[in-house]
Amino acid sequence: MEKIELNLIKEAKKGNAQAFEKLIKQHEQKIYNLLLKMTNNRVFAEDLFQETFLTVWKKIKSFKGNSEFSTWLYRIAVNTVLMKHRKKTINSVSFDTPILTSTGEIKRDFGDDWSKNPLATLENKELKEELNKAIKSLPDKYRTVLVLRDIEYMSNEEVRKILKISIPSVKSRLHRARLFLRDRISKYFKGHK
Fold first, then answer.
1. pLDDT of res. 122
2. Are residues 118 and 75 part of one domain?
3. Which class for 136: exposed (0-12), middle (13-18), buried (19 or more C-beta within 10 A)?
4. Between the N and C ends of the chain, which has fewer C-beta atoms within 10 Å?
5. Which CATH number is 36's domain given?
6. Among residues 53, 88, 48, which one has the least CA distance to residue 72?
7. 121 touches 114 (CB < 8 A)
8. Number of C-beta neighbours around residue 177 at 10 A
């Protein structure tokens, strides 16, 4: 952790709202992007963003520095989404980057390539909807790992720290999520031949 960040954390723990605001400014875009990718809904993401940072403000004194501050923030953000999801169904993940599978990549954003072909655009919209349905139907523990690893590009170690699970669990959950998506998308393509 940088010395500036450590000082801001120390001041925020004392109740210094200005220090807390500076600390949050350093991380707010990454946290918002994570929430948006996990919910695929700007309104939910904004609400969860507010909730996340209210929780951080309430719990800042409990931050011990055993992990990076950003890891602690991600953990709170992920837990906020999961808790809200348990209470109420929210929309699933939006995909703008390719899905990495054992057989290669599946491109997620097709609109730009074939935007002049109405049939292709319609098919791509259907594929995106199918992909979002597939992600939405994943159990929370698999969806969360998929978002953190494949969309946020975090390392297995970072995901392990955020979710407080073992590296083998991270790998297993990611593998199962990818297999599920591959199976679901394969069925989609078989139905559209």
1. 52
2. no
3. middle
4. C
5. 1.10.1740.10
6. 53
7. yes
8. 24
Number of domains in the chain: 2
pLDDT band at 8 (very low <50, low <70, confident <90, very high): very high
Q: How far apart are CA 163 and CA 148, in angstroms?
A: 10
Residue 17 shares a structural domain with residue 70: yes
Cβ burial of 121 (10 Å; 0-12, 13-18, 19+) is middle
What does the pLDDT read at residue 131? Answer: 80
Residue 154, domain extent: 99-191
- Helix ranges, 41-166 (H): 42-59, 69-87, 118-137, 140-146, 156-163
Q: What is the CATH number of the domain that holds 147?
A: 1.10.10.10
Cα dist. 91→43, 73, 117 in Å? 11, 22, 28
- Short-list 17, 50, 13, CA closest to 31: 50
pLDDT in tens, 109-151: 444 443 444 444 555 677 778 887 888 888 889 999 998 998 8
Could you list the beta-strand ranges (E) of 26-110: 99-101, 104-106
Residue 100 backbone dihedrals phi, psi, to 5 degrees: -95, 120
For residues 48 and 80, the answer to whether their CB atoms sit within 8 Å is yes
